[in-house]
Design goal:
With 254 residues, the protein is an alpha/beta fold. It is built from five helices and twelve strands.
C-alpha cells in the first residue's frame, strides 16, 4: 500500500510538472503572439524608394499603390502585394514591391510607353510606338505631345489607332525620339496632308517640313528657342540645309 501511495504521489508530481511546463509554453506562445500583435499594429513602413517612374512623380506612385488604411503596415503590405491582384493604374503596365527591411520598401514601376495622344469624344487616347491605344484618360499627361491632323475612324482601347496611312506612326516615333534626345519639349505636333510636321511650343509654331534631316532641324531648334523666349510667331525650319554652315531662318511674329 505504501508503494502505491508513493507511486500515486510521484504520478501527481509528474502531472503537476507537466502542467507547469505546459503553462510556461503557453505563456511563451502568448508572449510571442502579443509581441507580433504589437509589431503588427505599431510598425509602419517609413522609407519608400520609387524607380522606373517617368509619367508619375514619386509621391503620386506612393499614393496610388499604398492607398489603403493598412497599406503601410509591413505584414499587410506584403500580403496585399504577394497574394492579391495588383491595382489597375493608368499608364502603368505592372509594378512590384520589394522589401529591404520591415520599415523600408522599394516600388519598381513598369510604365506603358506612350509616344503621343489624340483627342476623341472628349477623351485623350494615348498610343504607343506601334499605334496601339494603350490608355484613355480625361487628363493631358505632361511630357506627351498632342498629335493632330490625323484622320481616323472608331477608336477601341488596346487596338491600333485606325488611320489611313500606317507609316505615320514611324514618323511620329522618329520625331518624338529626336525631341526626347535633344530635350526639346513640345505641346502639340500637327501633321498636314503631306505628313509634314508642325511643332507647337507655347506661343511658338515651328514649320519642320518633311522628316528629312530631322536631327539637324531639331538641333537648330534647340539653339534658337532661347532667343524666342516671350515671343509668339512662326519659325520656319523647312529651309534647313545641312551643307549650309551659316544658315538663316525666318521668324514671323504674330
Amino acid at each position: 500500500m505504501r508503494r502505491r501511495r508513493g507511486y500515486a504521489g510521484y504520478s501527481g508530481y509528474r502531472r503537476r510538472r507537466r502542467g507547469k511546463k505546459a503553462a510556461v509554453i503557453l505563456g511563451v506562445l502568448f508572449g510571442i503572439l502579443l509581441l507580433l500583435a504589437i509589431l503588427f499594429f505599431t510598425v509602419r513602413i517609413s522609407e519608400i524608394e520609387v524607380t522606373g517612374n517617368r509619367q508619375y512623380t514619386e509621391e503620386q506612385v506612393i499614393d496610388l499603390i499604398l492607398d489603403g488604411k493598412w497599406s503601410r503596415n509591413p505584414a499587410y503590405c506584403y500580403y496585399e502585394n504577394r497574394f492579391r491582384e495588383h491595382k489597375t493604374i493608368p499608364f502603368i503596365e505592372e509594378y512590384r514591391v520589394e522589401f529591404r527591411s520591415p520599415t523600408k520598401i522599394r516600388i519598381v514601376v513598369f510604365e506603358k510607353r506612350v509616344v503621343g495622344y489624340v483627342s476623341y469624344m472628349s477623351s485623350y487616347m494615348y498610343f504607343d510606338k506601334d499605334g496601339i491605344i494603350v490608355e484613355s484618360s480625361g487628363e493631358q499627361l505632361p511630357g506627351v505631345p498632342w498629335i493632330t491632323g490625323l484622320e481616323f475612324g472608331h477608336i477601341v482601347l488596346h487596338n491600333p489607332l485606325p488611320v489611313a496611312n500606317q507609316d505615320i506612326f514611324e514618323k511620329i516615333l522618329n520625331l518624338t525620339q529626336v525631341l526626347s534626345v535633344s530635350e526639346v519639349k513640345v505641346d502639340k505636333i500637327h501633321y498636314n496632308s503631306f505628313l509634314e510636321a508642325e511643332l507647337f511650343i507655347g506661343d511658338i509654331r515651328v514649320e519642320l517640313g518633311s522628316d528629312e534631316n530631322l536631327n539637324g532641324k531639331i538641333t537648330e531648334l534647340k539653339d534658337i528657342l532661347p532667343e524666342l523666349t516671350g515671343l509668339s510667331g512662326t519659325l520656319y525650319l523647312d529651309t534647313y540645309d545641312e551643307n549650309n554652315s551659316s544658315p538663316m531662318y525666318t521668324f514671323r511674329k504674330e
